[in-house]
Amino acid sequence: MHTPLISASQPANATGSVNAPTILITGATGTIGTELSRILSERAVPFRVMVRSPKDVRRFENLTGADVVIGDFNDVDTITPALAGIERAFLLTNSSEQAEQQQLDFVAEAQRSGVRHLVKLSQFAASLDSPVRFLRYHAAVEQAIEASGLDFTFLRPNLFMQGLLGFRASIVEQGFFFAAIGDARISTIDIRDIAAVAAEALTGSGHERNIYTLTGPEALTHTEMANTLSAALERPVSFVDVPATAMRDALLNAGFPAWQADGLLEDYAHYSRNEASGITSDVETVTGKPPRTFATFAHEYAPAFLGSVNIH
Predict the structure, then answer these.
(1) 265 assigned to some structural domain
(2) How far apart are CA 49 and CA 27, in angstroms?
(3) Which residues form the NmrA-like domain (predicted)?
(4) pLDDT at 8
(5) Contacts of 121 (CB under 8 A, 6+ apart)
């Protein structure tokens, strides 16, 4: 049975009236989706978000212009009503072994539903022949979108600065974080800049059939990141380079599924070869603003790394 639209801040309007949302955001409860929703709300752009659980509806209660539909990527019957009346959609799923198939199913349903433009969150260096499973699956979905005939914009961001929040406990309690990356440089990006580019692609023109490689303005080693974080926190933070096996054990102990842990190790092997050190101007080209520096991120997220607040 199809799940009806639920309005978080206004009457759900899927009947074709002038205020009916024509933009759908998937992955809306994650860091990028949350920021993207905030941007669209501030711009007074009506939009719809797809969430998995009724409890997630509450997250959008105070967000002007948001309609919410409950949907599950594993159940096409719930995706169909989410796409009703939608012209542009932002495609983002959780990282899992099912992600490729979930996204392929969504693309097929978007095509059937009359969606005109898909904005897909992909990944830096996505390629069908990559040794990194994440980069292969993103490339496979990109290929399917191109073959579908839909207009598209692919966003290929580098490593998220906010990924460092995954080490929040060790930074707060012990003053260090770790990875298997050596002294390789990586042009990390703030998720707020990714969301800003997504907002432009969803609401503006001229982004059709474009691929944007999204990076920060500098390529830093993890040791340099630790030094920058130390300055922002006014307390020592160090980076510890560890063998891949130790990183895998830590990920598994933290609850990561083996498939995802091994994929992250492939990611970090890719980073360690300096294959993610390139810098582009795509953020500024699209948004008109330069991407945030790591120092800006460290300063603004300092309360989280000091343990005084919990920022997601």
Answers:
(1) no
(2) 8
(3) 22-266
(4) 43
(5) 27, 32, 90, 91, 92, 155, 157, 194, 198
Please give the pLDDT value at position 307: 86
| Cβ atoms < 10 Å from Cβ of 103 | 26
Strand partners, 68: 6, 49
Sign of the torsion formed by the C-alpha atoms of 131, 133, 138 and 144? positive
Count how many domains the chain has.
1
Residue 304 falls inside a structural domain: no
Each as own residue / partner, the long-range contacts of residues 273-277 (CB below 8 Å, 24 or more positions apart, any chain) are 273/184, 274/184, 274/185, 275/125, 276/124, 276/125, 276/158, 276/159, 276/184, 276/186, 276/187, 277/184, 277/185, 277/186, 277/187, 277/219
- Has residue 269 been placed in a domain? no
SS3 for 41? helix
| Residue 18: how many other CB atoms lie within 10 Å | 6
* pLDDT at residue 7, rounded to an integer: 42
Neighbours of 161 (CB within 10 A): 23
How much is the pLDDT for 20?
Answer: 78
- For the chain, the residue count is 312
CATH number for position 82: 3.40.50.720
Q: How high is the pLDDT of residue 61?
A: 86
Q: Please, what's the largest Cα pairwise distance for the chain?
A: 58
> What pLDDT shows up at residue 279?
98
What does the alpha-carbon distance between residue 200 and residue 210 come to, in Å, rounded to a whole number?
Answer: 12
Domain range for 195: 5-159+189-215+278-291
Q: Is residue 249 part of a domain?
A: no
Q: How many CB atoms lie within 10 A of CB 59?
A: 17
Comparing C-alpha atoms, which of 124, 117, 104, 89 is closest to residue 209?
Answer: 117
